[in-house]
Amino acid sequence: MTTMTIETRAPNPYNGDFGRGIRALAEGEVIVMIDDSRIVLIACAGTVSTEQMAFIIRHTSGFVQVALHEKVCDSLLLAEAIPSDRYTPAHARGQCVAVDAAVGTTTGISGADRARTARVLADPSTEPEGLTRPGHLVPVRVMASNQNVQTVPALALALTDWAHPSRSGAVFADLECVDAPTRLAVSAEAVRFANQQGLVTVRTRRTHAHGE
């Protein structure tokens, strides 16, 4: 197994899997990220295909989000669903009003439509009127002041920043247990799933430190 070594521009929040995850995303693959609190599938928003979005929907809770930089959310006039100065659960912080792409979609709920919306969100030429609200894909604002905070959206976005810096944005959703789809996967199940599907697995530093 080969591990890619990269020169980081910021403190690296990952262990040795970081480079492999970046390379897989850059090559257009879906990856598995194992954090101490959540396990998610991740794809690059700028390049996600209909097939990849359908795969993510099929093997997760189906609640698909796209992590975006704060400046992107501001430029697209993406309003937060719950203002940041109010109490919100950690997993919901930064969530914005759901959107659909204004052109090239039908109902907005299909894998094809959500993939199209993700690509539009990651396209730097997109204007606010290129999105309709409410929709079926949930943008998540990652604030510049919190870029080194190890939240799942921030970690996912860091990976896609390296993989596709010109069209950054991270599609992510919580992985379900294969054998019991009414609950979310745990670490061992996620590793088994990744091996079965041939996906690269990235563990966050916190998970690595906990010895999982």
Task: Say how many strands there are.
Answer: 7
Radius of gyration: 16 Å
Broad structural category: alpha/beta
Shape: globular
Largest sheet: 7 strands, mixed
CATH-defined fold name: DHBP synthase
- What value does the average pLDDT take? 86
CATH superfamily: DHBP synthase
The strand line-up of the biggest sheet is 4-5-3-6-2-1-7
CATH architecture: Alpha-Beta Complex
Relative helix content: 25-40%
Element-by-element helix/strand order: HEEHEHEHEHEHEH
Q: Stretches where pLDDT falls below 50 for ≥5 residues?
A: 1-11, 208-212
Q: What's the assembly state of these chains?
A: single chain
Number of domains: 1
**β-strand amount:** 15-25%
Briefly summarize what is shown.
The chain has 212 residues and is α/β, with parallel strands linked by helices. The protein has helices at 18-26, 50-59, 70-75, 111-122, 152-163, 187-197, 205-209, and strands at residues 31-34, 39-44, 65-69, 99-101, 131-142, 170-174, 200-203.
